[in-house]
Amino acid sequence: MGKVIRFEFQVPNPVEAIEFYSKSFGWTFEKMTGPVDYWFITTGESQRQGIDGGMMKSPDGATRTTNSIEVPSVDEYIKKVINNGGQIVVPKTAMPNMGYFAYCLDNQGLLFGVSEVNPEAK
User: Fold this and answer.
1) pTM of this structure
2) How many domains does the chain have?
Protein backbone atom coordinates (compact mmCIF):
# COMPACT_ATOMS: atom_id res chain seq x y z
CA MET A 1 0.00 0.00 0.00
CA GLY A 2 1.42 3.40 -0.97
CA LYS A 3 1.80 6.00 1.76
CA VAL A 4 2.12 9.76 1.30
CA ILE A 5 5.73 10.43 2.25
CA ARG A 6 6.28 14.10 1.43
CA PHE A 7 4.79 17.25 0.06
CA GLU A 8 6.33 19.74 -2.34
CA PHE A 9 5.56 23.45 -2.50
CA GLN A 10 6.12 25.29 -5.76
CA VAL A 11 6.11 29.03 -5.15
CA PRO A 12 7.10 32.17 -7.10
CA ASN A 13 9.64 33.30 -4.45
CA PRO A 14 11.17 30.48 -2.36
CA VAL A 15 13.27 32.85 -0.21
CA GLU A 16 10.17 34.72 0.97
CA ALA A 17 8.29 31.45 1.53
CA ILE A 18 11.19 30.02 3.55
CA GLU A 19 11.13 33.10 5.78
CA PHE A 20 7.35 32.82 6.21
CA TYR A 21 7.31 29.12 7.17
CA SER A 22 10.42 29.39 9.33
CA LYS A 23 8.98 32.27 11.35
CA SER A 24 5.39 30.99 11.40
CA PHE A 25 5.95 27.31 12.17
CA GLY A 26 9.63 26.87 13.07
CA TRP A 27 10.30 24.71 10.00
CA THR A 28 13.89 24.32 8.87
CA PHE A 29 15.12 24.35 5.27
CA GLU A 30 18.24 22.77 3.78
CA LYS A 31 19.25 23.67 0.24
CA MET A 32 20.08 20.69 -1.96
CA THR A 33 22.90 20.91 -4.46
CA GLY A 34 21.88 20.26 -8.03
CA PRO A 35 20.81 21.79 -11.30
CA VAL A 36 17.61 23.25 -9.77
CA ASP A 37 17.35 25.26 -6.55
CA TYR A 38 15.55 22.90 -4.17
CA TRP A 39 15.16 22.93 -0.40
CA PHE A 40 14.32 20.00 1.88
CA ILE A 41 11.82 21.01 4.56
CA THR A 42 11.83 19.54 8.07
CA THR A 43 8.46 20.23 9.67
CA GLY A 44 9.07 18.89 13.15
CA GLU A 45 10.76 16.37 15.36
CA SER A 46 11.53 13.06 13.63
CA GLN A 47 9.88 10.92 16.34
CA ARG A 48 6.49 12.67 15.87
CA GLN A 49 3.97 11.65 13.23
CA GLY A 50 3.81 13.73 10.10
CA ILE A 51 5.68 14.25 6.87
CA ASP A 52 8.42 16.56 5.69
CA GLY A 53 8.68 18.10 2.27
CA GLY A 54 10.47 20.17 -0.29
CA MET A 55 10.25 23.56 -1.94
CA MET A 56 11.24 24.92 -5.32
CA LYS A 57 10.56 27.90 -7.51
CA SER A 58 7.47 27.33 -9.58
CA PRO A 59 8.41 26.93 -13.25
CA ASP A 60 5.24 28.74 -14.37
CA GLY A 61 4.81 31.16 -11.45
CA ALA A 62 1.75 29.36 -10.06
CA THR A 63 1.64 28.19 -6.45
CA ARG A 64 0.83 24.54 -5.83
CA THR A 65 1.31 21.69 -3.40
CA THR A 66 2.03 18.19 -4.69
CA ASN A 67 1.94 15.12 -2.49
CA SER A 68 4.21 12.16 -3.29
CA ILE A 69 3.38 8.53 -2.61
CA GLU A 70 6.12 6.00 -1.88
CA VAL A 71 6.05 2.97 -4.18
CA PRO A 72 8.41 0.00 -4.56
CA SER A 73 8.78 0.62 -8.32
CA VAL A 74 8.03 3.82 -10.24
CA ASP A 75 7.91 1.79 -13.47
CA GLU A 76 5.28 -0.58 -12.07
CA TYR A 77 3.12 2.21 -10.67
CA ILE A 78 3.27 4.33 -13.83
CA LYS A 79 1.62 1.37 -15.60
CA LYS A 80 -1.05 1.15 -12.86
CA VAL A 81 -1.77 4.88 -13.10
CA ILE A 82 -2.24 4.67 -16.88
CA ASN A 83 -4.33 1.48 -16.65
CA ASN A 84 -6.65 3.17 -14.16
CA GLY A 85 -7.30 6.28 -16.25
CA GLY A 86 -4.47 8.53 -15.08
CA GLN A 87 -1.71 10.25 -17.03
CA ILE A 88 2.03 10.71 -16.61
CA VAL A 89 3.01 14.40 -16.82
CA VAL A 90 6.68 14.13 -15.74
CA PRO A 91 8.27 10.80 -16.71
CA LYS A 92 10.44 8.70 -14.43
CA THR A 93 13.35 10.87 -13.32
CA ALA A 94 16.42 9.95 -11.28
CA MET A 95 17.42 11.74 -8.10
CA PRO A 96 21.06 10.56 -7.98
CA ASN A 97 21.86 8.35 -4.99
CA MET A 98 18.28 8.76 -3.67
CA GLY A 99 15.78 7.16 -6.03
CA TYR A 100 13.28 7.90 -8.78
CA PHE A 101 10.11 9.94 -9.10
CA ALA A 102 7.41 10.71 -11.65
CA TYR A 103 4.49 13.15 -11.57
CA CYS A 104 1.05 11.99 -12.58
CA LEU A 105 -2.53 13.18 -12.92
CA ASP A 106 -5.27 11.00 -11.48
CA ASN A 107 -8.51 10.33 -13.36
CA GLN A 108 -9.93 13.62 -12.00
CA GLY A 109 -6.92 15.77 -12.99
CA LEU A 110 -5.24 15.94 -9.55
CA LEU A 111 -1.44 16.18 -9.68
CA PHE A 112 0.56 13.79 -7.46
CA GLY A 113 3.96 12.16 -7.42
CA VAL A 114 5.19 8.60 -7.07
CA SER A 115 8.58 8.08 -5.46
CA GLU A 116 10.87 5.05 -5.28
CA VAL A 117 13.78 4.87 -2.83
CA ASN A 118 16.85 3.51 -4.60
CA PRO A 119 20.33 4.63 -3.51
CA GLU A 120 21.76 3.32 -6.81
CA ALA A 121 19.75 5.80 -8.91
CA LYS A 122 21.82 7.77 -11.41
Assistant:
1) 0.87
2) 2
